[in-house]
From TrEMBL:
Lineage of origin: Bacteria, Pseudomonadati, Pseudomonadota, Betaproteobacteria, Burkholderiales
Annotated gene: metXS
InterPro entries xref list: AB_hydrolase_1, AB_hydrolase_fold, HAT_MetX-like
Organism: Pararobbsia silviterrae
Site (Important for acyl-CoA specificity): 324
Record pathway: Amino-acid biosynthesis; L-methionine biosynthesis via de novo pathway; O-succinyl-L-homoserine from L-homoserine: step 1/1
Enzyme class: transferase
Protein name: Homoserine O-succinyltransferase
Binding positions (substrate): 222, 356
Listed GO CC annotations: cytoplasm
Function: Transfers a succinyl group from succinyl-CoA to L-homoserine, forming succinyl-L-homoserine.
Catalytic reaction(s) noted: L-homoserine + succinyl-CoA = O-succinyl-L-homoserine + CoA
Keywords: Acyltransferase, Amino-acid biosynthesis, Cytoplasm, Methionine biosynthesis, Transferase
Its EC number(s): 2.3.1.46
Length: 382
């Protein structure tokens, strides 16, 4: 029977050795916040790394003793008896460098000044995150992951792992992801960033010193993002054109631009909630990392060439109504891998929920992932 991993406790790991970044800068004396679930076996062969998406973190599963409602973002996927079964596997979640959930990022003090880095925090890339995660693996004595898994931006990290560390990844699980952003996706990110940058409370990224945060910009950024995570059919089913106007009201038009439609209420709620807990500089950093990811770039756009030295087995999953990272993008990854005769399992799930489907409880999706982990469990003997 499926159950939760229960109460979990995050830990901070400190790294003194400088980490060279793709930008040419480096960062030293940084912290990464980590959570683990399950037990690492004696041979250290049952470890699985779960990589997080834009607004998620190391908190993959379970809940905190002092915050029982703060449940991990992939709790329906990770836990005893769940598709990624913590009775068999040792699962690691790492909060990426530059994030705002405990790892060193823009909110952290810059050793050179003693003040928060703010906009001076160095640019980070998906590849930088993977290199930092490799140091976490080293700290646990894990030479090779049974699997590296992620959805959306996390899927980009999983794919990058298989490229950068081909001998350290047994299986690569890429869910609702893409080998690079389309121009349209970059455009959505730019509009969201512009909302933040134009907020008077942004102060060039040094809003910490003013004891404010660019809430209005963050709110709009989240609203833009959230629209792209849902499909048209899903939004129609959830909200349609339902009005919040009191029943019997006889005014057809509202000229004060207050909330009129249910979908407006939903988006403003999501925007307000996001602005409460997320950091604006982190949002700018992470969306840029999304934009920059393109492993085929140094191979003249040839994804097949970029994947030439991979050795992992792959599970690639897409969702029919995900227009942000459409199935065609996942099929590009599959084709490039098949060009090298890699072992690839591909699942295209007919689901109405858009990009957010990778976080939901679709039984076909979960059964596919469960069956794939059964195969991995048999290989590593757990």
């Amino acid at each position: 029977m499926d159950s939760s991993v229960g109460v979990v406790v995050p830990r901070q790991m400190h790294f003194t050795e400088p980490l060279a970044l793709r930008s040419g800068h480096s960062i030293a004396d940084y912290d990464l916040t980590v959570e683990t679930y399950g037990t690492l076996n004696a041979s250290r062969t049952n470890a699985v790394l779960v990589c997080h998406a834009l607004n998620a973190s190391h908190h993959v599963a379970g809940h905190y003793a002092d915050a029982p409602s703060n449940v991990g973002w992939w709790d329906n996927m990770v836990g005893p008896g769940k598709p990624l079964d913590t009775n068999r596997f040792f699962v690691i979640g790492v909060n990426n460098l530059g994030s705002c959930f405990g790892s060193t990022g823009p909110m952290s003090p810059d050793p050179a000044t003693g003040r928060p880095y703010g906009a001076r925090f160095p640019v980070v890339t998906v590849e930088d995150w993977v290199n930092a995660q490799a140091r976490v693996a080293d700290s646990f004595g894990i030479e090779r992951f049974a699997a590296v898994m992620g959805g959306s931006l996390g899927g980009m990290q999983a794919l990058a792992w298989s490229i950068l560390y081909p001998d350290r990844v047994g299986h690569c699980i890429v869910v609702a992801s893409t080998p690079k952003l389309s121009a349209q996706n970059i455009a959505f990110n730019e509009v969201a960033r512009s909302a933040i940058l134009s907020d008077p409370d942004f102060h060039g990224g040094d809003y910490y010193a003013y004891n404010v945060k660019p809430r209005r910009g963050l709110r709009v950024a989240r609203m833009i993002g959230h629209i792209t995570y849902l499909s048209d059919d899903d939004m129609a089913a959830k909200f349609g054109r339902a009005l919040r106007r009191a029943e019997g009201a006889d005014d057809d038009y509202n000229f004060n631009f207050d909330i009129e439609f249910e979908v407006e209420s939903y988006l403003r709620y999501q925007g307000d909630k996001f602005a409460d807990f997320f950091d604006a500089n982190t949002y700018l950093l992470i969306t840029r990392a999304l934009d920059y990811f393109d492993p085929a770039k140094r191979f003249n756009g040839d994804l097949t060439a970029a994947l030439a030295h991979t050795r992992a087995n792959y599970l690639v999953v897409s969702f029919s109504t995900d227009w942000r990272f459409a199935p065609a993008r996942s099929r590009e990854i599959v084709k490039a891998l098949l060009d090298h005769k890699r072992s690839v399992t591909y699942g295209e799930i007919d689901a109405p929920h858009g990009h957010d489907a990778f976080l939901l409880d679709d039984p076909r999706y979960h059964n596919l992932v469960r069956a794939y982990y059964e195969r991995i469990a048999a290989e590593v003997g757990v």
